[in-house]
């Protein structure tokens, strides 16, 4: 049993170390900071226990830190792989040293996995070098949340002002006005360049260029990095990229969770969209712990067909069967290409993949039963629509529906994230469970969260459910894949689309 202190990096999951990603994929328990990017949390194995141990700025930090240490020791003694996922690098303003000491004192092995600190990674990704010959030969990293400016125990802002070089301030948005005043009082010129970068290295990144005199007026939110010094004027106003894509200037909300979200996010970003990641659900074990699925898998040969309508169902079902040879006497149907590819990865070539990649399309192409045919085994999510079971029943099949997994909602997102969702141009929904979770979201005043004007759903069932729930502007993706979602959005918002103006 080991606890791993893992640096989550500055936000972009691509900037997480390979060692960190490997540990998240096999962790039993992950205790994470409040502001760790949802895209990084998507790398956690779906069966792992996620615990948000983030500290609220208004709560007693020392008391909360003691509780975090207690949880680390508790889980470190009872779970094989425990990851403490900390923003940036564990040892830079993350109190990682204290957590390591608590584990050491409890006799629990601890390994530190460094991360890319936002102090250097975020400015670099925005084109700002924190040191540059002729402009800055030194860089100082300081937190803006350690005491008040000039107070005992806090940073010596006058000394920092005299030191010159580049000053990188983390966790300083709430005290930015006082910090600017203290630096000017210490001798820094009021017109010293400043760059403030919110949610750096993520699709939600925003950057404002200003000066010390204007820092207090900057209206960005945490997490943000403040760069003070001549180098803050360097780099492009917007990080350089390739040619603007057909979705340039559009903001799209992605509700898909897990590793499959990355493919959709990357496809949208290649098309020029700004993506807001809003994972709403996660897949967990069936309510009986998988007992019914294991029993059904053991008797799979008693059926004529196995029907699978999601990658999750494939993963759960194939983990329950002895191996691919158990399916030799059985025909297998997959709802679409992603499900079919998951089967092939498990060594099974599907016998039926409908031209229309939906439950309705599968039912339409499925053969009718004759008197000699055995039944259909249908491993699926708890609460999955009845389209398959009812449709195949009407064709004469006896369908054994088995709960393979459950989909449960994640914790309520931060208000700042919900505000970006409400202001987005489009919402993507890949399952009815995500739709239900979205409709349950509320603004801070308790009102239903506004729905973006354009909604793209994978499959007719999700689209019809969205329309029945009263959503306007609902459209179906051009195929049951991320590329199908992007194609529909490009058709609508692109130069030739009706929504492109």
Gist?
With 501 residues, this protein is an alpha/beta fold. The protein has helices at 18-26, 38-41, 61-78, 96-105, 118-125, 157-163, 176-185, 260-270, 291-298, 311-320, 337-345, 359-365, 387-394, 415-422, 432-439, 460-468, 482-493, and strands at residues 2-7, 29-32, 49-52, 81-86, 110-113, 139-143, 166-170, 193-198, 206-211, 224-228, 251-254, 274-277, 281-285, 303-308, 331-334, 375-381, 399-409, 426-429, 454-457, 474-476.
Describe the structure in your own words.
- The structure is a single chain.
- By secondary structure, this protein is of the alpha/beta class.
- It folds into four domains: 2-115, Cobalt-precorrin-4 Transmethylase, domain 1 (3-Layer(aba) Sandwich); 120-233, Tetrapyrrole methylase, C-terminal domain (Methyltransferase, Cobalt-precorrin-4 Transmethylase, Domain 2, 2-Layer Sandwich), CATH 3.30.950.10; 251-280 and 410-493, Rossmann fold; 284-408, Rossmann fold (3-Layer(aba) Sandwich).
- The chain contains 17 helices and 20 strands.
- The chain has helices at 18-26, 38-41, 61-78, 96-105, 118-125, 157-163, 176-185, 260-270, 291-298, 311-320, 337-345, 359-365, 387-394, 415-422, 432-439, 460-468, 482-493, and strands spanning 2-7, 29-32, 49-52, 81-86, 110-113, 139-143, 166-170, 193-198, 206-211, 224-228, 251-254, 274-277, 281-285, 303-308, 331-334, 375-381, 399-409, 426-429, 454-457, 474-476.
- The strands form four sheets. The chain has a five-stranded parallel sheet, with helices on both faces.
- α9 (291-298) crosses α10, α10 runs parallel beside α11 and α12 packs parallel to α13 (387-394).
- The protein is globular.
- Mean pLDDT is 88; it is low at 238-243.
């Amino acid at each position: 049993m080991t606890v791993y202190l893992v640096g989550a990096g500055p936000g972009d999951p691509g900037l997480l170390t390979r060692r960190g990603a490997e540990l998240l994929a096999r962790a039993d328990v992950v205790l994470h900071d409040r502001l760790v990017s949802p895209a990084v949390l998507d790398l956690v194995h779906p069966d792992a226990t996620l615990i948000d141990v983030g500290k609220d700025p208004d709560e007693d930090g020392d008391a909360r830190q003691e509780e975090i240490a207690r949880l680390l020791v508790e889980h470190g003694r009872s779970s094989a792989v425990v990851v403490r996922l900390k923003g940036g690098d564990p040892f830079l303003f993350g109190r990682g040293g204290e957590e390591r000491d608590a584990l050491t004192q409890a006799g629990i092995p601890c390994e530190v996995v460094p991360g890319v600190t936002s102090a250097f990674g975020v400015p670099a990704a925005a084109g700002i070098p924190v040191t540059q010959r002729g402009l800055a030969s030194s860089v100082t990293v300081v937190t803006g949340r350690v005491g008040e400016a000039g107070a005992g125990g806090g940073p010596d802002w006058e000394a920092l002002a005299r030191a010159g070089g580049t000053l990188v301030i983390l966790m300083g948005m709430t005290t930015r006005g006082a910090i600017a005043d203290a630096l000017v009082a210490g001798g820094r010129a009021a017109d010293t360049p400043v760059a403030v970068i919110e949610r750096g290295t993520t699709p939600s990144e925003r950057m404002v260029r200003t000066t010390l005199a204007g820092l207090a007026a900057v209206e960005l939110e945490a997490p943000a990095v403040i760069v003070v010094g001549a180098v803050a004027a360097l780099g492009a106003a917007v990080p350089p990229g390739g040619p603007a894509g057909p979705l340039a200037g559009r903001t799209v909300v992605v509700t898909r969770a897990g590793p499959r979200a990355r493919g959709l996010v990357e496809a949208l970003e290649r098309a020029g969209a700004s993506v807001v990641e809003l994972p709403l659900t996660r897949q967990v074990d069936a309510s009986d712990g998988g007992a019914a699925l294991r029993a059904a898998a053991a008797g799979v040969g008693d059926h004529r067909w196995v029907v699978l309508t999601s990658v999750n169902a494939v993963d759960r079902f194939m983990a329950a069967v002895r191996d691919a040879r158990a399916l030799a006497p059985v025909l297998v149907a997959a709802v679409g290409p992603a499900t079919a590819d998951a089967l092939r990865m498990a060594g099974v070539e599907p016998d039926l993949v409908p031209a229309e990649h939906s439950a309705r399309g599968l039912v339409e192409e499925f053969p009718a039963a004759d008197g000699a045919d055995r039944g259909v085994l249908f491993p699926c999510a708890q609460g999955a629509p009845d389209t398959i079971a009812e449709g195949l029943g009407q064709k004469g099949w006896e369908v054994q529906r088995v709960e393979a997994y459950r989909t449960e909602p994640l914790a309520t997102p931060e208000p700042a994230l919900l505000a970006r969702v409400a202001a987005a141009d489009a919402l993507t929904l890949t399952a009815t469970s995500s739709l239900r979770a979205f409709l349950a979201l509320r603004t801070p005043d308790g009102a239903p969260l506004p729905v973006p004007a354009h909604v793209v759903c994978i499959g007719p069932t999700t689209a019809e459910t969205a329309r029945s729930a009263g959503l306007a502007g609902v459209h179906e993706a051009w195929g049951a894949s991320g590329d199908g979602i992007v194609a529909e959005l490009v058709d609508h918002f692109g130069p030739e689309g009706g929504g492109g103006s």
